Amino acid sequence: NYPRQVSIVEVGARDGLQNEASVIELPVKLAFIDGLLRAGLKRIEAGSFVSPKWVPQMADSAAVFNSLPQNSGATFSALTPNEKGMLAAIDAGVDEVAVFAAASESFSQRNINCSIEQSLERFEPVFRLARQHNLRVRGYVSCVMGCPYEGAIRPDAVLAVSQTLLDKGCYEISLGDTIGTGTPGQTSRLLSTLLKTIPASKLAVHFHDTYGQALANILVALQHGISVIDSAAGGLGGCPYAAGASGNVATEDVVYMLNGMGIECGVDINALVAASTQIFDHLNHEPASRTMRALLAK
Ligand code: HMG
Ligand code: MG
What is the pTM of this model? Predict the structure, then answer.
């Protein structure tokens, strides 16, 4: 019993590019995002309003948002960890914002320099401003299946922080397997725990593909009724505060699987490969996406 339709949240321009060694120039980013729009992607994470000292790759996010097309029909979102980031995001005209918490204390400290509880306090002004400006807030929970510092993470810990974020006003929780260590059995146990109290319509999956498990885990998520999938064009991505973590699952690989299963997602795979090819021309490594490589070899 799979969902008939899935919506893809394209995070390559944020989660992908934040972890590339080279800082991509503004016109190249904009051309990439334009390519994503042409491919039919409707939810695009385009930047992040965090400290430029921590993540220099996202330092031009205000310029990115100022240059995005109006009336494209897509929703452009950005990460906002605190009030300062939220004010900058509003100023830049974002359509939607995202706060990001973790299910692991050590990861919270390394990623955003505060405890889980402090992070929730820092989100308060983000929620307040979001209400004032009529912006939807997405909530990320990192390390849902493993933490680079603490190892295994209990599903109960994920449930607690997810529920808190929903109570505070998030409309959707994106479950991050930040280091990509999760396997299908774990995914199933995690979702079974969460779905006892949280409806599937409020959950998204955000899997990194470090151990090649992401597609299998996504299949399990689909079987549990999850219909929002985060992915990055070409398999761009990683996390600067999770050593060894590789990119997000590749959007091409997800779209290929969904197409084969007859699940609609509205993405034109060839147009997507064209967008990925354009951005990988500016990077010093090959795309991780197997589907992209296969289609280009045809
Ligand atoms: P902090 O040092 O605790 O914050 O950092 P602070 O309030 O003490 O401020 C320190 C300095 O940062 C000050 O500047 C502030 O103005 C500045 P200074 O006086 O030193 O010149 N500052 C800011 N500048 C710009 N934008 C802001 C901002 N806030 C403070 N919003 C902070 C806290 C969160 C800012 C910092 O730790 C940070 O930027 N961390 C980066 C976090 C990040 O972007 N991580 C990657 C994204 S999360 C992810 O990838 C996981 C995800 O994909 C899901 C998954 O895979 O699991 C979402
Ligand atoms: Mg991520």
Answer: 0.97
